[in-house]
Specification:
alpha/beta; 5-stranded mixed β-sheet
Length: 236
């Protein structure tokens, strides 16, 4: 793979795995534009608007794009469906490759913007005391795979005896009280998920041509979607 192929890529990034709707553009592996909304359930309304606004802002034509990157999950079922559907639509219409980025891996990359020899545990809220999480080292290498786990006083107990772990994400708040007596448990309260954290991972995948089959690609839900019981009388 030539250096120019790796460096000159223009990529659009779509992050809708949580309540935040985030779209970014990069060129040469560098962020050139980003739009984000923290309004819950705004993905369907804002995603196409953000894409259009960013393309106009940087004066790119859609044909200029080299690839489309999407946050693949785990996360919100509805959010992931919207993001992946939009990404696949762009890929089909533009005949561009699709790059899938693990949501938790990109979060961990964003958390690890320092040289500390610690571990990073991004967490996505999965309701009640359950979270989707994984553990990464400072080099964004996976130390423990993705899991759906119920948080209690025994969670991460062995790891916290040996190393400092930074927790972040909308699921991390559940751990604060549970880990109150764990000196090695640290929390990045200001951290928020963002499409900007996908850039390093997706650009590397682009250079290595690690693309998805657009026709068959599906989000990584981790757990099956369970619809709530209808509350309107007469519906089953």
């Amino acid at each position: 793979m030539s250096v120019s192929f790796y460096n000159m890529a223009k990529i659009i990034y779509i992050e809708t795995a949580t309540k935040i709707c985030s779209v970014a553009l990069s060129e040469n592996g560098k962020l050139v534009g980003i739009r984000e909304s923290k309004v819950s359930n705004s993905h369907a309304e804002m995603l196409s608007v953000f894409i259009e606004e960013l393309m106009k802002k940087v004066n790119w034509k859609y044909a200029d794009l080299d690839a489309v990157a999407v946050s693949m999950g785990p996360g919100s079922y509805t959010g992931l469906r919207i993001g992946v559907s939009s990404a696949k639509g762009l890929c089909y219409s533009l005949e561009k490759p699709l790059i899938a980025v693990s949501t938790l891996q990109s979060m961990a990359w964003g958390m690890a913007q320092n040289n500390e020899n610690v571990l990073f545990c991004p967490m996505i809220d999965a309701r009640r005391m359950e979270v989707y999480s994984a553990v990464f080292d400072k080099n964004n290498e996976e130390e423990r795979g993705i899991e759906a786990q119920i948080i209690d006083e025994n969670s991460f107990a062995d790891s916290l005896k040996e190393k400092v772990i930074y927790f972040a994400g909308d699921g991390a708040a559940k751990c604060k009280e549970v880990f109150a007596n764990q000196p090695n448990a640290r929390f990045l309260d200001e951290f928020e998920i963002s499409s900007r954290y996908m850039i390093e991972i997706a650009t590397k995948k682009y250079g290595q041509q690690q693309f998805e089959d657009v026709a068959y690609f599906e989000p990584y839900y981790l757990k099956d979607f369970i619809a709530g019981t209808p509350k309107v009388k007469g519906l089953n």
